[in-house]
Amino acid sequence: MSGGARRPVAGAAAPTKAEARAAAQRERILAAARQCFIERGFHGASMASIAQTAGMSPGLMYRYFPSKNAIVLEIIARQLEHSRLRIRELRGSSDLPAAIIQSFRKWREGDPATMHGALFLETSAEGSRDAQIGAALRSADQQTRADLQSWFDADARKRTGQRVEQEREARLILLQCLMEGLAIRLIREPDIELEEIEPALRQLTDQLLGS
Amino acid sequence: MSGGARRPVAGAAAPTKAEARAAAQRERILAAARQCFIERGFHGASMASIAQTAGMSPGLMYRYFPSKNAIVLEIIARQLEHSRLRIRELRGSSDLPAAIIQSFRKWREGDPATMHGALFLETSAEGSRDAQIGAALRSADQQTRADLQSWFDADARKRTGQRVEQEREARLILLQCLMEGLAIRLIREPDIELEEIEPALRQLTDQLLGS
Amino acid sequence: MSGGARRPVAGAAAPTKAEARAAAQRERILAAARQCFIERGFHGASMASIAQTAGMSPGLMYRYFPSKNAIVLEIIARQLEHSRLRIRELRGSSDLPAAIIQSFRKWREGDPATMHGALFLETSAEGSRDAQIGAALRSADQQTRADLQSWFDADARKRTGQRVEQEREARLILLQCLMEGLAIRLIREPDIELEEIEPALRQLTDQLLGS
Amino acid sequence: MSGGARRPVAGAAAPTKAEARAAAQRERILAAARQCFIERGFHGASMASIAQTAGMSPGLMYRYFPSKNAIVLEIIARQLEHSRLRIRELRGSSDLPAAIIQSFRKWREGDPATMHGALFLETSAEGSRDAQIGAALRSADQQTRADLQSWFDADARKRTGQRVEQEREARLILLQCLMEGLAIRLIREPDIELEEIEPALRQLTDQLLGS
DNA sequence: CATGAATGAGTGTTCATTCAT
DNA sequence: AATGAATGAACACTCATTCAT
């Protein structure tokens, strides 16, 4: 990004038409791949099926991605970024549990701007085997934790009398556990009524957050 | 053992030598498959690699399991059973958070009698695509929830002044979320110090359990 | 051919270049399969051997046929069609036996436009086990019978009673043909009523054995 | 068979108990193999299925036959012998067509003492590929021809020109039998001179087509 | 004599990847 | 830029054959 324009065009970072097209093609491929991965898994989805879903030939995909694995990695990276943005959105909210619930609700409705549950699970599993994915996961988790941290700091307005002053880190981790655990729950039991668990969730988050 | 009756006991379950050997072979295969599945995933592990790990020829495995899928299902079934037993063990404990921590500690040390994290994740992901696995998961979840239920009932000794009397179900779900979320956490961040989160976890479980 | 419209003809059946190539590939595969089936049988011929004979990779064949069985069925269908056409050719002939002899001569010389003997036998055998092949055989037999029927109708001209003393050997051979042909018939059409053909059979055997 | 007893037992050719048992085992295997071959074909039937049908272990079969192919060859040899005996039975009959019909009727009912149709076809097909089987077929055909020869000689009694108007269908069927039977003949005896059978064939077709 | 566990080469089939067009 | 035909090394699975018991 830094160090000058890659192509000698007027202006600093204006993409050429070709670059814009290439970017659009990449998006098409990634959208198709995401759909196929959700439906059949990373291993189960074939390049041919992704190509068909993207409406292009298998060969063309190799102009934009060097391998299937590269597509997987890019999908994972994007999903992690989406997850992080989703956490960030919660930060401004004054009613945390309601915001969490609302976020999960959108997520469960298949909002493509959020990480899909099956991909979340499969990515986590793959991360325990593939070093590259594992590193990406740890990095994303650190960032997410930092986001939650600043959120806690902002939210630590007047809160009184916690039974014990605990390590912030621990409470952060447990909040994350709660949310990811809920994610799995909703995959494995799609019929859970989110409204019904909201009060209990509120209680827990109150506890974690402080008062 | 040799030269006499093959079933010298009046009881019902004395296995013949052949049956014992067959059972041992099945165990060898399952142990090898578990290891390969952990290392490479359900789809990534080939029958050849499992056979090699088990120290036998590929063809021989088909004497004990009709297909690779049957092995996968058996692995999943056992892992689910182990998960359930692990929950049960916690029930008798007087110090719940400590027991949870202890359980997770054993689990993280790779105790083969507990469900492996990567398998847990991959099983959950696969369950969202494969109907048979999905059904097994839902069934196991119901049983686990029932176990937790009875545990709650037993533990509902004198507890006073909850801010709001909430639905039991919701609290059960959230406890499960917390634990499963912690499972994922430990896969994705193996360096988390369990002792450091114990106090906060205790706080949450107290909240969920009642007082 | 190049540079212009891909379908320059007003007619309906002008194939594109790609379609023509696909058709040619299918023919190459079928020709190779036919040869391999003749040499080694339906079950004895492997996809690898067919691919090698066709001068292509095994994987490529699956672009044109979904399975080995589909190739077998196509080969059988074509052979049945050829058989039927061969019967039809005879119809116009004024000298039937000469035409039959001529037809068999071409057939024995390996004319690939006629059904190969070994395939004929193996198809008949397989038809007694495989329902799909069995149905194809019965259907083809019905059509052939209908063709022969119309031939009879047209050919029922005046016939005079030759009574030439012929070589014994020839009559022996034909008796054997009759019996073995009847064997095939009864496999392919198990519902034939033997009583109903007895008089005609008697006539023929009298002719063969007799004065 | 000649040259003295193989084991130093009293008497010339009296089989020992062991030999008798071995012969019985061979029969069990052959009977099971015949059934399996009929149901699934030479290639489709596995040694395991034959062993199960015979009620013995796969390994034991190798004590009596060196290979699966040896079983196939023995089955074929026996079937050819049965065919020949069947022809012989016809010889004494005063009413040939009735005897043929009767023979085919028994055959179709699955008389295990006669060659099974599917085996007949498959054997004929296999004989065009396997030199050993081909030679066996040619040898058996020669013998059969010789049997028919003597039969002709004996049966050349006075025959009168019946000229009954018969069912068309029956004549159609027999024409088809004749042609298909000829097809088999030419595969099993490629040296047959078509010209030499033309006159007799003409006679038969005239009979079939004619008034 | 008899078993059946064990082998390993072979089967039909799939699929990531390449490349001539 | 784009195609899709082509490859070939997997894959899951089968089976004739062997051999320790």
Structure description:
4 copies of one chain form a homotetramer. The first copy, chain A, contains 9 helices and no strands. With 211 residues, chain A is mainly alpha-helical. Chain A has 2 domains: 14-66, Arc Repressor Mutant, subunit A (Orthogonal Bundle), CATH 1.10.10.60; 72-209, Tetracycline Repressor, domain 2, CATH 1.10.357. In chain A, helix 4 packs parallel to helix 7 and helix 5 packs across helix 9 (194-209). Mean pLDDT of chain A is 81; it is low at 1-5 and 157-164. Chain B binds a DNA duplex (21 and 21 nucleotides) through residues 18, 21-22, 25, 46-48, 56-60, 62-63, 67-68.
Largest interface between protein chains, with number of residues from each side? C-D, 81 and 80 residues
The portion of residues forming beta strands of chain A comes to: under 5%
The radius of gyration of chain A is 20 Å
- CATH top level of the largest domain in chain A is Mainly Alpha
Number of helices of chain A: 9
Brief digest:
Four copies of one chain form a homotetramer. Chain A has helices at residues 17-44, 47-54, 58-64, 68-91, 96-108, 117-127, 131-155, 168-188, 194-209. Chain A has 211 residues and is mostly helical.
Layout of secondary structure:
Four copies of one chain form a homotetramer.
Chain A: H1 17-44, H2 47-54, H3 58-64, H4 68-91, H5 96-108, H6 117-127, H7 131-155, H8 168-188, H9 194-209
Helix pairs in contact in A: 1-2, 1-4, 1-6, 4-7, 5-9, 6-7
Chain B binds a DNA duplex (21 and 21 nucleotides) through residues 18, 21-22, 25, 46-48, 56-60, 62-63, 67-68.
